[in-house]
Every structure is written in structure tokens, then in C-alpha cells.
Amino acid sequence: MIQLTSLRVATTAVPEATLPVPVLLLIAVLAIALLLFLIMKVRMHAFFSLIIVSLLTAVAAGVGAKDLLDTIVGPFGKTLGNVAMLVGFGAVLGRIIETSGGAQVISEKLIGLFGEKRAPLALSVASLLFGFPIFLDAGFIVMLPIIYTVARRVGGGLLRYALPSAGAFLVMHALVPPHPGPVAAAGIVGADVGLVLMVGLLVGLPTWYVAGYRLALVLAARTQMISVPELLGKPKENQENPPDFGVVLGLLLLPLVLIFMNTGFKTLQATGHVPEDALWVQILIFLGNTPIALLISTLLAMYLLIVRRHEGPIGGALEKVVDDALAPVCSIILITGAGGIFGGVLTATGIGGAMATSLQAVGMPLILAGFLIAVIMRVAQGSATVAGTTAAGLMAPAVAASGDQSPLALACIVVAIVAGAITLSHVNDSGFWLVSRFLGISTKTALSTWTVIATAIGVMSFALCWLLYVLVA
Asked: What stretches pass through the bilayer (predicted)?
């Protein structure tokens, strides 16, 4: 397990408020309102909006000029210290598998195994596997030509194949590291990324099957049949030198195996079953650290899918793949860092402590409060990343103040927050428009299908998280 306690934006001791609690709470409400105004009405980029609001919040709460820069820069660096590597390595790994034809190989293999009658299940399973390292928007676009081809060949309407695939991508993108939402929330709250990965998969897989697959099929059957639009053309039928299915599958599973190995040996160390000072144990734990596991998998993918299969000079090909992968995620990385700033300011000013006191007075469970705050932020401004990081920043001081959260309970809180951050996807969410436009469906149809699926995934994963939290808290 990767212990991210050092990456907490909140400190273990909640700062004493310098202003009355009602004043601090009013500042928090005004800060959130200003943040939403800048993002939604002014259309300012979330990165700048979060920094501006963080600065104004710090000043309003009484942070002096000499401490202002440290209050901003410190949380930003701590948040990015882990997020940047995880998101960057994950993006490069996904891009390599995408450009090598790995997604198509996996899809065709699974359709062959499941049969055409179960093609929706095959595509959904393929999206689960491919969705581990690649974001929803990029992964869904990569899968679309394959979905179009299967829909044309098998019949039954486009939504029968597209919605289960999109639902699978959403589950992985929302709940499972190395995606930015759960990684950033884990860093801000102080949870272990390895445990967040385990909890995300534990609640995500049944959620995918019920809400992302079964519900998607029901909604597709109840919706007027949609023909395949002519948007992306067709996938290459006979790609030269396609990668081997086993190689691609192994590359997707390798980081999971390494991370689980880390978690397992950490647990065995804690229970005294393996010696803590044994060199071989330390090496295996090191290899299973999430950034190292993703780095190993990415370097191996470079060799197996590019270097070994490429003819001629290889440097330019590798550089292009990496540049193409990293460019789109720079904005996401900066937003997560800015979300860490907001959380750090709330902690440093005592606003977080005031919120923690209020939550304790109301008696609302931390995990429920985190989920509801994320839902409110999601509905208000649309971005799941902003909703998750903001909610995590608001909850971090309350979590720190509680003082009795086990590592597994912290992981449950993180997954509950990111579950709320995907709930109620609607017209202010870029993912909503990506799915609706590429499927050629109306806004009304998207609201009755995609919004319902996203909400069901968010609510069910939260419910399972809360159940697990009750059992372990």
C-alpha cells in the first residue's frame, strides 16, 4: 500500500479558528458560490477559478500576507506530488494500448468468446479492461468504431452496444485509480491509493453489472432504436501486425497485480507473518507502489507494443505517443492541484474545522456528507474532477478531526466522494454531450438514458461503500 498520509492537505491537528464559527461558515458558502459563478457564468477555467477563490478565501479568513504564498503553494505541491505521476503514467499506458490496436484486439477476442448474442456484454467487459488506464472520453471514442461495426453486423440498435460500454468506462473512470478523481481525493483526504483501488473495484464491479450493464440494456430496449451514425468511419479490419491479446491483457492486469501485491505484503507485515526488515519484502512492496507499478507497466508497454513491433528509428515514435498522451491531461492535473489548494486553504484558515464541528453537531455521517457535497458540486458545475476535489477538500478537515478513521474507512469515504461526483450527469457535463453527440441522440434521450445510468452508478456505488464503511468503521 502507498501510505499517502504525507500527502494530506489537511494536517492531523485541525487549526483553531481565528474567527467565529458562523463567520467562517459564511465565508465557506460565499467561496463555493463564487467558485460556481466563475466556472458556470463567467466561463473561467476551473484552474484559475479555484486559485482565485482560494486566495480570496484565505484573505477573508485572516491569513496574513507573509503566510499567503505558503498557504497556496504548499497544498498545490503536495497534491501534485503523487497525482501528476499516476495520471501521467496512466494516460501514456492507455495511449500506447490505443494506438497499437490493443483495444480492438481485446474487443474482437471477447466478442469471439462471448458470441454475437452477448456482444453488449463483451464490449462492456472490454471497456472495463481498457478503462483502467484510459479516461472515459478518450476510451469511449476509441471504442466507438468497434461499437459501430458490431451494431451494424449484429443489429439491435446502437444503444444496445454503446450504453453498456459507456457505463463500464464511467465506473472505471470515476472509482478506480489511476484516474484523477479518486487519486486526487485520496491525496487530499489522506487515504491509501492501494486501498482506494481495492474498494473501488469491490464496489465498482457489482455496480457495473447492475447499473452499468443490466440497466443500460433495459434503457436501450425502452428507447427508440437508433441507427449507427456516420461519424468516425470504421475500424481497420486487417491491421498490420496487431498485438497479441495475451500481451495486451497482461499489460492491463500487471499494475493491478503489483499494487495488490504491495497491499498484501503490507498487511502481512502488520500481522507479523513476514519480517519487516527482509530485503525481498521491501523490494516487492516498492515494486507495488502505485506510481512504480504504473511506470513498470508503461515502460513494458513501450517495449512490447512499440519498440519490438516498430521498424526503423524508434525515438520519434515513442516521443509522439508520449506527447499525444500527456497533452490532454495537463489541464486535469492542474485542476486537481488547484483543488488541493482550496482544501489546504480551508484547513489553514480553520474553515474546515468549523465545518467539522457543524457536521458533528448535526450528526450527519462523514461518508454521507462527502457524497452529498460532491453531488451538489457535480449538479452545479458539471465537472466530476472539480466536484470530487472540492468535496474532498471540504471533507478533509472533518475527517482529520474525527481522528478514529481506519485506513479502510478512509478509502470508503474517498470512493463515496467520487461516486457523488459522477451522479446526475446533465447538460453542464462535457461527458453528457460527448456521449449524446457521438451516439446521435437527442438531449431528451440522453437525459433518459445516460443521466439515469450515471446516477444509478453513483448511488449504487455509494450505497455499497456506505455498507462497507459501516462494517469496518
From this structure: 20-39, 46-65, 119-146, 158-176, 183-209, 245-265, 277-306, 326-346, 358-377, 408-427, 447-472
Q: What is the pLDDT of residues 365-374, one digit of tens each?
A: 889 999 998 8
pTM: 0.73
Q: Domain map of the chain by residue range?
A: 18-472
pLDDT tens digit sequence for 208-222? 999 999 999 999 999
Three-class secondary structure assignment of 323-389: HHHHHHHHHHHHHHHHHHHHHHHHHHCCHHHHHHHHHHHHCCCHHHHHHHHHHHHHHHHCCHHHHHH
What backbone torsions phi and psi does residue 406 show, to the nearest 5 degrees? -70, 160
Rounded Cα–Cα distance for residues 5 and 282 (Å): 19
Query: What's the farthest any 2 CA atoms get from each other in the chain?
Result: 69
- C-beta of residue 146 within 8 angstroms of C-beta of residue 207: no
pLDDT at 468 over 60: yes
- Residue 327 cell numbers, joined: 497533452
**Mean residue pLDDT across the chain:** 83
* Cβ atoms of 97 and 305 closer than 8 Å: yes
